[in-house]
Amino acid sequence: MAGFLEGVARWMIDPRKNWLARVHMRTVAARLKNYGLRYDDLYDPYEDLDIKEAMARLPREVVDARNQRLKRAMDLSMKHEYLPEDLQALQTPYRSYLRDMLALVKRERAEREALGALPLYQRTLP
Amino acid sequence: MTIRNQRFSLLKQPIASTLNQHLIDYPTPSNLSYWWGFGSLAGICLVIQIVTGVFLAMHYTPHVDLAFNSVEHIMRDVEGGWLLRYMHANGASMFFIVVYLHIFRGLYYASYSSPREFVWCIGVVIFLLMIVTAFIGYVLPWVGASLLHLAALHQYGSNNPLGVHSEMDKISFYPYFYVKDLVGWVAFAIFFSIWIFYAPNVLGHPDNYIPANPMSTPPHIVPEWYFLPIYAILRSIPDKAGGVAAIALVFISLLALPFFPSMYVRSSSFRPIYQGIFWLLLADCLLLGWIGCQPVEAPFVTIGQISSCFFFLFFAITPILGRVGRGIPNSYTDE
Questions:
Q1: Closest Cα to residue B318, out of B256, B251, B269?
Q2: Phi, psi of B172, deg, nearest 5
Q3: Residue A107: CA atoms inside 13 Å, Cβ hemisphere, count?
């Protein structure tokens, strides 16, 4: 049953098999291009410490570029403007820089948990 | 050299430094819109309710045979009593308008998501206490809760309309957001004044001007407008205990929202499906509010039951969207 649901979920978000997913992909891409952001830029290190750890392992220029895109996006948002059309055409919203490293960090954490080791970092409350 | 930079600045001394840290130099995302002004406005409504409530209490008589006349005495004889009464009555409505806008802003931009779960949960508790307080008229419980809500918020700072990490573009709270909030406060003051001076009884019910008579039940009992959506959910369950359980489920659903599986994307700006069901939720809440003031007969009963189901469907769908949406980054590519 879990496998079946997993398969359905994969089909739902596969733009090659599902035209709704294609429409969704293009809609999200358009919104990201408006602000000159990539999908990975939306990941917040405050939300998940694994993201913070993954970003700490990335090259400095990658993190700097991310911060510059975010600062530009926040400036546009503050002014209620979008990026100029010519710059929007150059955007690559789904080009990833963080996902592979994040997957590695999560695999490492899962391995530590499976071996019974203490976590390297933990969320404080609140 | 500014005052804050001077060695012996008042703002660097013990208690004032806390004021400076949280209200003056407090780093705030630069792109907060006016939707972020309802929090401070809710604080102002709280102060208005407390002050007018205290002055009303000086003239109110809490006795079953004298209460109604004491309110009329306040309205007619006490100097400025009519203003106090109308400010307090309409202030409650304003408080709920502000808080509902604040809650829906939080839902739209997913301000409830990690790491602000505690902020959201305290807010839901404040909302519950507001409803209870409005219902029974007892003020004291939630002043401390409001401060805790603010302290929890300042742990990680505010969310922003893009829902992104905002550390790289923050500006000081004062003067920028003090001035922005001031615009909101003045607009609110004008809006509030219109209700107090031109339509003070529109949001109330005429039956409140009839002394209570245990021998004669009014034919069409209806609560204040801000209770109507929850009242509609209560009435949609035929069983009495079931209706109370449904109300409890409303607050349990709100409290559980931050802990549902979620995508790493927060704001509705980049979640078109969630954005769509948010607007459906808002329409459903407005429909529930309308149903709440209708009599318990067809077709209002059926509409109320369907609307109540849709309300809880939002909380059922949200974790599914979050769980399915986690796979999005791996399957979407640039065209």
A1: B256
A2: -70, 145
A3: 6
Q: Which residue of B has its CA nearest to A96?
A: B329
Give the three-state DSSP class for A58. coil
- What is the per-residue pLDDT for B5? 62
Give the pLDDT score at B138.
Answer: 43
Which residues does B149 contact at the CB level (< 8 Å), separation at least 6? B119, B122, B123, B126
Encoded amino acid at B103, one letter: I
Nearest to A47 among B113, B152, B325 (CB): B113
Matching residue, tokens 């690559």: A92
User: Amino acid identity of B229?
Assistant: P
Pick from A82, A64, A37: nearest CA to B265: A37
Q: What are phi and psi of B170, to 5 degrees?
A: -115, 150
Nearest Cα residue to B220 out of B230, B210, B72: B210
Answer whether A42's CB lies under 8 Å from A73's CB.
no
How many CB atoms lie under 10 A from the CB of residue B166?
25
B169 close to A (CB below 8 A): yes
Residue A125 pLDDT = 67
Instruction: Tell me chain A's radius of gyration from C-alpha atoms.
Output: 18
Contacts with B265 from chain A: Cβ below 8 Å: 39, 42
Predicted model pTM: 0.92
* Measured CA angle at B137 (ends B202, B230), to 5 deg: 65
Residue of B107, B97, B115, B321 lying closest to B225 (CA atoms): B97
DSSP of B25-74: S-EEETT--GGGGHHHHHHHHHHHHHHHHHHHHTT---STTTHHHHHHHH
pLDDT range class, residue B140, cuts 50, 70, 90: very low
| Residue listed under structure tokens 């829906």 | B104
Q: How far is CA B185 from CA B22, B191, B192, in A?
A: 19, 10, 10
Distance of CA B144 to the CA centre of its chain: 16
- Cβ pair B30, B172 in contact under 8 A: no
Nearest CA in chain A to B164: A42
DSSP-assigned beta bridge partners for residue B28: B171
Rounded Cα distance, B248 and B254, in Å? 10
Distance, in Å, from the CA atom of B239 to the CA atom of B223, rounded to the nearest integer, reads 20
